[in-house]
């Protein structure tokens, strides 16, 4: 029988995360501190990074089809600001999938700053899903630093379900040829929540490929900031780099600030960028209602449809389905029901 | 089933319907013809509850209810169906999911339990056969990438799924080739029953070769200027509208 949790003291009793899938390797990081080292025979290790944070390493050539889930939790045992750095190193020719979740378990005003340094050796292939689900008084800054070597492939999907003030800064450097980097994200904000996404995609050498697709749904007085920059260096010919940011505003008070930027110093490249903001489509709403679908449900369907293409990019089907369910219940407003119970687990 | 009295409607202050009177009984097929801009599509939109139109006068009684007071979804749940002239594309919502939501929302309204997955698939297969629709349509986004003919067939498919009492087909024949026209018409004929009714809005007589109307109305400048039997459609085909407009 597969054990559902590799680490058990008291966490599972309070923590009923719906994300874990059967046969997932799991590790818990409580207030920045790794609870237990992980080492498995397939070539994956997770150890502490000094006093806080962790180092995850995938051995060269290792193929790990199962998801590895790392659950970062903030709880009442430490309500001080916490800052730590995690290292994720993927060896040559390795293949792996990582799920990074962040949660808050109590209603304290948490301040968290985490660095996530991601290094892909040549021909490493990595899928990372980041799921952020924190309460309204939580502020979390995440600094992603990505370095990719030749022929490596990274697909990172960031799903921001809930959080008071979330800031994702991504610095990606494609340092050797034929690296491919795909960044996708969904952010769902309401109330007075704020989400900031800053991306700096640096094409330093020829023949690399990058794409960014970020979509957000904003309700009430929430705010979203998206600033995405693609920099193509002078020698980085044959670069392909794309960026898109689309926003759906459900209220007149919600605001989105989008800053798509391209800096191109090479002359033989394919690049595009674009940002849009819009509201629900009245024609589609009427169409759905004319079939008997209630106005509320019709609006919800349209919202789910809006972010659907981003979720579709999550390669693991089972995980994709789970996240679709979470996004749906979030859009149905079910998260706020249990904000008082502080588990934020639904 | 449907009684319209002195219906006036406008959009952005411009009056489009200028006093419509008509009544439709169960088992009947009514055709509404008329030149462009006469108000045919406005009438169908107003009956389905589109909020961009403002009803300024008149009343519509449907099965004893004041139709104009009902939300579009409640009209649908009580058996009104509008086949769109321009069916809307909804990327990201698959046909299956769309229909499942529609059927189950309607069932919920009627205090019926949702269909099980097996029941739903059976129903879907059955109704897709009615309009000779390929199974691959079901997983695609609603109307996304469909040709004009496929979109119209999808409308008839949805109608077959929802089994309305009163179906209003707004220029379902526009943009259809003869084969698609025959499939659509056959679909409508298969769904015709003594307890339901159709209002077929069309430009041309062509569709009425396949769907035989009991009553034909000619709409011009927001008013019904002539009502007669199916022979009126032929007369319009031969003589145009001029003899009706300037008698």
How is the secondary structure organized here?
The complex is a heterodimer of chains A (346) and B (247).
Chain A: H1 11-14, E1 25-30, E2 33-34, E3 38-40, E4 44-48, E5 54-58, E6 63-74, E7 82-90, E8 95-104, E9 111-120, E10 125-133, E11 139-148, E12 153-162, E13 165-174, E14 180-189, E15 194-203, E16 209-218, E17 223-232, E18 240-249, E19 255-264, E20 270-278, H2 282-289, H3 295-311, H4 317-331, H5 334-337
Parallel strand pairs in A: 1-6, 5-7, 6-8, 7-9, 8-10, 9-11, 10-12, 11-13, 12-14, 13-15, 14-16, 15-17, 16-18, 17-19, 18-20
Antiparallel strand pairs in A: 1-2, 3-4, 4-5
Chain B: E1 2-11, E2 14-24, E3 29-33, H1 40-48, E4 54-62, E5 65-66, H2 72-77, E6 80-83, E7 90-94, H3 95-109, H4 117-130, E8 141-142, H5 148-162, E9 166-170, H6 178-191, E10 197-201, H7 206-210, E11 215-220, E12 223-228, H8 231-239, H9 242-245
Parallel strand pairs in B: 3-10, 3-11, 6-9, 9-10
Antiparallel strand pairs in B: 1-2, 1-4, 4-5, 7-8, 11-12
Helix pairs in contact in B: 4-5, 5-6
